[in-house]
């Protein structure tokens, strides 16, 4: 398979899309909102997902590899341990969302100060069988501990991002 540039839709059965989270969030957030299709440094896509209020809709039926990479940091004044998570949540009825995959980071205790940021990335993925594009959707979640945890967001770099690849027919 080759590398795709630009916004080509010439291969109508192929879906390859990359979305990035554009703003940082503090604390538990479900769903993460403020997404944009990656559009800097000649990043392209084929086909295309749609997104509204943190809910992603698939353009056609098929088996999709969905990945979520959540860049997070801890800015805290306590010595307590912190556990953060990234999650992909799915629905098959366009209503009830369930955790399908999780990635976790544990920030250990030990003298965090207000001037210290500790960073990490949690990732997770699923293979999602989309047989009904109006009901099968995904959203992403950031789970935090005691309040000093943040996700990174940027409109120029892919710090926290999701990918959608159609890998086959259903």
Topology:
Elements: E1 16-21, E2 25-26, E3 35-37, E4 50-52, E5 55-57, E6 62-75, E7 82-91, E8 98-107, E9 117-130, E10 137-143, E11 149-151, E12 161-168
Could you walk me through the main structural features you see in this protein, from its secondary elements to its overall organization?
The two termini are 20 Å apart. This protein has no helices and twelve strands. The chain has a domain at 16-72 and 88-103 and 125-139 and 153-168: Jelly Rolls, CATH 2.60.120. The strands form two sheets. Strands 1, 2, 3, 6, 9, 11 and 12 form a seven-stranded antiparallel β-sheet that branches. With 170 residues, it is an all-beta fold.
End-to-end span in angstroms? 20 Å
Largest sheet: 7 strands, antiparallel
Provide the CATH architecture of one domain. Answer: Sandwich
Order of H and E elements: EEEEEEEEEEEE
């Amino acid at each position: 398979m080759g590398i795709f540039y630009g916004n080509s839709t010439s291969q109508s059965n192929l879906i390859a899309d990359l979305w990035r989270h554009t703003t940082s969030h503090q604390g538990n957030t479900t769903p993460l909102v403020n997404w944009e299709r990656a559009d800097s440094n000649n990043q392209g896509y084929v086909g295309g997902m749609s997104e509204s209020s943190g809910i992603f809709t698939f353009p056609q039926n098929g088996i999709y590899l969905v990945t979520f990479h959540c860049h997070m940091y801890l800015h805290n004044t306590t010595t307590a341990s912190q556990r953060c998570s990234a999650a992909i949540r799915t629905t098959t009825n366009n209503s009830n969302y369930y955790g399908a995959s999780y990635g976790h980071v544990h920030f250990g205790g030990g003298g965090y100060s207000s001037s210290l940021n500790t960073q990490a990335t949690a990732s997770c993925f699923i293979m999602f069988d989309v047989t009904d594009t109006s009901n099968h959707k995904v959203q992403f979640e950031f789970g935090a501990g005691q309040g000093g945890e943040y996700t990174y967001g940027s409109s120029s770099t892919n710090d926290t991002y999701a990918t959608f690849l159609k890998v086959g027919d259903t």
